[in-house]
Amino acid sequence: MLPAMAKLCCGISYPHLRSMTGTHTFHPQSSPLCGGLLERAAGQHDCVEETELSYQRQGQQALQEALEIVRDADGWRMEMSEGSGDAIYSKVRHGNHKVFRLEAELEASPEELYDILFVKVEEMHQWNPSIGQIKVLKHIGKETTVTHEVSAETVGNLIGQRDFLSVRHSLKTAECIYLGGAPTHLETLPPQPGFVRAEDGPTCIIIQPSANCAGKSRFTWLLNMDVKGWIPKSLVNQALPRAQLDFTKHLRRRLKTPCRVRTHH
Ligand SMILES: CC(C)CCC[C@@H](C)[C@H]1CC[C@H]2[C@@H]3CC=C4C[C@@H](O)CC[C@]4(C)[C@H]3CC[C@]12C
């Protein structure tokens, strides 16, 4: 009853939200009754639209903050460079926290990568053994989602299994596609007992078409992770760039086999 009322009074429904193209067409003030009615109905101060708007803002802010980190040229040092041309740079930020930036060239157009990494994010465990599961819990328009990610319980994962609750936001411009993310909260999915909830963000991926080369992209990925739990920093700072290289390796394999038969779990 309540969700239905909320939708009615706010004048929204999911199909409507999904079909929205721009984030700026979303005006909470266009339904002046919303807050008042809901408050009376449920004794709450919040309205559905306001919550969604808050995720949208968190997502946009995450992307902006992550881009600022990437664009600040100071203090980066090379961590490693691979034969494939991939390179990882790192920088120590406040609180002695190290962030990592992977640079790679991938054999796919920005649009293909957007499709694999954002639209079909729930399929990631099928091609990436580091991922246990990814679920999109909320869609806010086309550009923003709230996702729950569980890393795999893989052998050799020195950190151990983690889960993440993130807000994700995508932005397409004439030049680039940006994917941003940051840790967030959702009442229906608090940290699970016995499970270590890690934080990933503010983080971003920048996908640019390679100069003079249709069908290839420059891929820049800022990993800004707090793995939580009691793990020596030196170990974490080895595992994270490893995880970035592994991710890129599996992404390349996925790009080579776009039509393989999918196994459903
Ligand atoms: C070292 C241990 C703790 C973690 C290892 C797994 C890491 C590398 C995994 C866990 C969750 C994963 C993220 C889950 C979801 C997304 C959103 C997508 O649009 C781009 C990739 C991105 C951002 C993944 C990058 C890799 C990731 C951060």
Protein traits:
single chain; 265 residues; alpha+beta; two-stranded antiparallel ribbon; globular; disordered N terminus; disordered C terminus; binds cholesterol
Task: Describe the fold and architecture.
The chain has 265 residues and is of the alpha+beta class. It has helices at 2-10, 14-19, 33-42, 48-71, 110-119, 124-127, 233-256; strands at residues 77-81, 87-93, 97-106, 131-140, 144-151, 163-172, 177-183, 199-200, 203-209, 217-223, 225-226. The strands form 2 sheets. It has a 9-stranded antiparallel sheet with strand order 1-2-3-10-9-7-6-5-4, sandwiched between helices. A two-stranded antiparallel ribbon has the order 8-11. α1 runs antiparallel to α3. The radius of gyration is 20 Å and the shape is globular. Residues 117-118, 121, 130-131, 134, 149, 151, 159, 162, 164, 168, 179, 181, 198, 200, 205, 227, 239-240, 243, 247 line the site of cholesterol (CLR).
**Unreliable stretches, pLDDT < 50, 5 or more residues?**
1-45, 259-265
User: Strand tally, please?
Assistant: 11
**What is the helix content?**
25-40%
- The total of helices stands at 7
Instruction: Please tell me what the overall shape is.
Output: globular
**Main pleated-sheet profile:** 9 strands, antiparallel
Overall pLDDT confidence = 83
Q: Approximately how much beta-strand content do the residues carry?
A: 25-35%
Oligomer: single chain
Order of helices and strands: HHHHEEEHHEEEEEEEEH
> What Rg, in angstroms, do the CA atoms define?
20 Å
Question: Class by helix and strand content?
Answer: alpha+beta
Hetero compounds: cholesterol
What strand line-up does the widest sheet have? 1-2-3-10-9-7-6-5-4
Termini separation: 33 Å
Pfam families: START (PF01852)
Pathway: Steroid metabolism; cholesterol metabolism
GO molecular function: cholesterol binding; cholesterol transfer activity
Keywords: Lipid transport, Lipid-binding, Mitochondrion, Steroidogenesis, Transport
